[in-house]
Write a structure and sequence with these properties.
Blueprint (H helix, E strand, L loop, with lengths): L24 H14 L8 E2 L1 H8 L3 H13 L3 E4 L3 E4 L4 H25 L4 H15 L3 H18 L3 H22 L6 H5 L1 H14 L2 H13 L2 H7 L19
Antiparallel strand pairs: 1-3, 2-3
Protein name: GntR family transcriptional regulator
InterPro entries: GntR_C, TF_FadR/GntR_C, Tscrpt_reg_HTH_GntR, WH-like_DNA-bd_sf, WH_DNA-bd_sf
GO molecular function: DNA binding; DNA-binding transcription factor activity
Amino acid sequence: MVKGARASGDGRSRGRLGRLEQGSLSERAYGAIRSSIISGRFAPGERLVEEALAEDLGVSRAPVREAFRKLADERLVEERPRHGTYVREFTAKDFVDIYNLLSAIESLAVRLIVREKAPLEPLRRIVDRMAEAAREGDLPRVVEIELEFHRSLCSAADNEHLDNVFRLLSGLVGMALSLDDATYEDVKDIAAEHYPLLEAIEEAAKTGEEERAVFAIRSHIRASLGEVMRRLGGDPSDVLYPLVYPEGTD
């Protein structure tokens, strides 16, 4: 299996996290480190040093240690005996498995959105914020907002259990999005791709064509995979095509 690119440097993890406010320190440490992993601020294969992160966050090492445990449960980090804690590396198969699962989950979500004619304006506002972050060249922020878009798409389906399934996977989905988005030459293209997706779902909701919405979301998920899969030594065709091509769709 082909590993993703490793981070260079001594892995001291310094200077990328701000100090925490009062509250549950372990939860806040978990949230801060998790966000930095998902957004790509900490790279796959990078060593996370407990002492350095605790100093950055202004906490003792215990909350960071607890955060590492939760992140390991989510499969976002790997704890290597006698070597430390490292951000998970992605293989081509990891990427394929996550995107195929995301495609299945969001296919159901858009079916329910079309059937119930759920409002999509909140999703449009999220894409507008993504476009603003892209204009500023803030790739980590774009990744965070893109993950919010996919999470909100599932929430819009108004199915509690579907929403919970996405939340369980959201960390790995976010890491996959970060790796994918890093291959774009122009970060503004990431946001731009979401407007046609919304328009396709809106049109499907007007006509009741669930399959057209499914085709749109699955095509969107698969569209940008070529470069990142090549970097990981995989084949983009391993990510499933839409199963149904609506009449009149090229």
